[in-house]
Amino acid sequence: TVVVGNCGISLAPLVHTDAPPPLNLLGGSDKYVYPTMAAYVAALGAARPVVNVAALVGHSTLRVATMDDPYRPATPAEQSRMVELLREGMDAGATGLSSGVFYAPGAAADIDELALLARVAGDAGGVYTTHIRDESDKVLDSLDEAFATGRRGSVPIVVSHHKCAGPRNWGRTVQTLAHIETARTQQPIALDMYPYIAGSTVLRKQMVDGIIDIMVTWSTPHPEMAGRMLAAIAAEWRCTQQEACERLQPGGACYFQMREDDVQRVLAYPATMIGSDGLPHDQHPHPRLWGTFPRVLGHYSRELGLFSLETAVHKMSGLSARNFKLDDRGEIREGAYADLVVFDAATVKDVGTFEQPKALSVGIEWVLVNGAIAYRSGQVSSERSGRFLRRRKP
Fold first, then answer.
1. CA-to-CA distance for 149 and 117, rounded, in angstroms?
2. Cα Rg of the chain, angstroms
3. CA 5, CA 309: separation in Å to the nearest integer?
């Protein structure tokens, strides 16, 4: 099962011929053809997906759909229209609301707007997931904003891909996880994490500091630079990295901004789910699309002993199904849907690297989706048995 629409970026509800960043992370404006979540759900059913799909409604998508200029504060009338579209999305079965207030246009929203929309998701029995406003120096303040949004909206919170970014903040997950643990005594909070020291998102000049390594994953004006390091491109062009970043835009990049001990600390935290945070349309994508779950099973569980195999499986199945209100999913029991992965615990491991990200992982033998074989012995089945998953009603 994939949960789509994270970080404020969803395909629905939006019809747009020139969707602005970061909405272009989903593959281009030709993708934005669904005026409602119901239209997206219908198209998904007609396409017969290979895997199950649960969907979040993106806050940035709502802003672009309702505002002539989504980079400014919204008027009460525009916020009311966002509420209408979100309510329609929840009625169509969306699992909740997502925001990416780290990025424009979501960053233009204040907490009042976020809480207003979070209340709609909460009233419908959904969740609120957020790429918080700052994951570096102001990470604690940004976590507090997310927690306050959840309390005001009476909605469970999921902190997306929790991290402490940049060398100045390495090691601070000791502090942030303690902060999260204290807040969890007052409200429902979960988080997710991918098992790598690098993230991936749009190319942003503000993230180019000359300290962290940056690998270009796609570039519209310079597609030939995908897979190369920004520092090497800047040297070749005889300019600064920030100037090179500007010349490459619009584009995407992997940012090597975390430290391994922080990654392990967040992965091991009991409330952490495993998620790939994958961007499937990049020319040279992050290896997490292929390696996230085998890497947790093989490297972090088997080789490092960070947690048991049972805990690793729970973090990527039952825990996620519970947090996203997906009934009868994520566990093996009589009466539950047969979404199963058969793997060799002694050999399962990721193989892909940042240089060669698309290498298939090893040790996975079978995948069943809703009881039908979806993958066997390295081959994807022609049977497409996935479906849209509606959240549990309150």
1. 9
2. 20
3. 29
Residues 158, 129 contacting (CB under 8 angstroms): yes
Topology (CATH level 3) of domain 2-193+259-336: TIM Barrel (3.20.20)
Q: Where would I find the H helices in the chain?
A: 37-47, 59-66, 76-91, 111-123, 139-153, 173-184, 230-237, 241-248, 260-268, 288-295, 309-315, 318-323
Closest CA to 67 of 14, 23, 129: 14
Can you name the CATH fold of 198-257? Dna Ligase; domain 1 (3.30.1490)
Which pairs with CB-CB distance under 8 Å and at least 24 residues apart come from 110-116? 110/73, 111/145, 111/148, 111/149, 111/152, 113/73, 113/74, 113/79, 113/82, 114/59, 114/149, 114/153, 115/148, 115/149, 115/152, 115/153, 116/79, 116/83, 116/153
Closest by Cα among 176, 156, 179 to 322:
156
The string of pLDDT tens digits covering residues 302-323 is 999 999 999 999 999 999 999 9
> Chain-wide mean pLDDT for the chain?
96
pLDDT one-digit tens code per residue, 248-269: 999 999 999 999 999 999 999 9
